[in-house]
Amino acid sequence: MFDLLAQEQVRDVHFKYDPASGLRAIIAIHSTKFGPALGGCRFISYDSEDRALNDALRLARGMSYKAVLAKIPQGGGKSVILKPASYDPEKLFLAFGDFVNELGGRYITAIDSGTSAAEMDIIARRTRHVTSTSYETNPSDFTAEGVFAGITVACQQVLANESLTGVHVALQGLGNVGFQLAQRLRKAGATLTVADIDENRVRQAVDQLGAQAVSADKIYAVDCDVFSPCGLGGVINDQTLPQLKCKMIAGSANNQLLTEEHGKLLHQRNILYAPDYVINAGGLIYASMHHNGFDNHDIAHKSQEISVTLAEIFNASKAQEKPTSVIADTLAEARLFGLSNSENKRRSQGVDFSRRSGGEVA
Ligand code: NAD
């Protein structure tokens, strides 16, 4: 157990079993160095308790990296509720609200796979350490805006384009984020090829946005400028990578690279990758700032920093001839664990921020 915590560098893990509601939940807190840990509550079925714990630890760490590069005053945390065979949602999420409340604000919960504003509203009856309730703006708006800005920066880097007019984007997944992104791209004059396993969403994009549709398995091979994964994780893998004909990858999906190695392979193939947890931080920025009392105008202003951070990462990658994924991880680790620790890490990865040129990264 503690080896696992050491591996993911998670500081503390909390377990709750509540027989009355059937709640079996885990809250993992990776870091509170820059503020309370903020991260979603995942409510799905797990094959085993070990898998649930692994998920919580890995996801909590990811949230720390995302928060630290978004420069928001939050740490990284995540919770999972093991989905019971049968349950009363109200009892279950009230009990989870009590669990969150017991931690006194060290962890703030939010929507994740299997939860929605409806569950957050129930949790909010028991704790104030909750975001993404139905009284708030859908964070996907801010995520889509951040990804749109990130695609614009990537195109400036690779195509030296100031506008997206005529830029061809292959967009995978037309859900909350993907469809809004498609609307913004279309408005900016981009050409769209889209795929989704939901035919209705594809039809909507074709009818309303003039997009070309391809089947879900053909989206990787579209000859385009930007491939934008906005559906599921792990889409850059041994099967898809040889098919890619894009110049850039920039989308909202979490954990797009199946392994770290795939980030290196993209770099070798000269495909510019916008690290997922940097480009998709808009929703987290919204959740954090709204929770801390800022209005949407301030939040939109802060979200513009996503493109600044991305430009810095792209420039550092170019100057040091290192994958953008390695640059982003190293930068996050340097901020999280301190320069002396990251020094070792940098050496082992061969990343050198002292040779930085073309933009401040640290
Ligand atoms: P969503 O569930 O609303 O949309 C996902 C879409 O992808 C759906 O339309 C689904 O049918 C489609 N899809 C699933 N499998 C597919 C496949 N094999 N091929 C093509 N399409 C497929 O989710 P969302 O909120 O839009 O989030 C999209 C991604 O962005 C997820 O990976 C999510 O974790 C990540 N993300 C979302 C936010 C946010 O604010 N919503 C923030 C950060 C990261």
Structure description:
The structure is a single chain. The chain is α/β, with parallel strands linked by helices and 362 residues long. The protein has helices at residues 2-8, 49-70, 89-102, 117-123, 140-159, 176-187, 199-209, 260-268, 276-279, 282-291, 296-303, 305-320, 324-337, 339-349; strands spanning 12-18, 23-31, 37-44, 75-82, 107-111, 168-172, 191-195, 212-213, 226-229, 248-249, 272-273. The protein has 2 domains: 2-63 and 75-123, Rossmann fold, CATH 3.40.50.10860; 139-281 and 315-327, NAD(P)-binding Rossmann-like Domain (Rossmann fold, 3-Layer(aba) Sandwich), CATH 3.40.50. The protein is built from 14 helices and 11 strands. The strands form 2 sheets. Strands 8-7-6-9-10-11 form a 6-stranded parallel sheet, sandwiched between helices. A 5-stranded mixed sheet has the order 1-2-4-3-5, with helices on both faces. The longest helix has 22 residues, at 49-70. It starts with a helix and ends in a 13-residue tail after the last helix. Mean pLDDT is 92; it is low at 340-362. Bound molecules: nicotinamide-adenine-dinucleotide (NAD). Nicotinamide-adenine-dinucleotide (NAD) binds at residues 139-140, 143, 172-178, 195-198, 201, 216, 230-233, 252-254, 280, 283. The site of nicotinamide-adenine-dinucleotide has 25 residues, from helix 5 and helix 6.
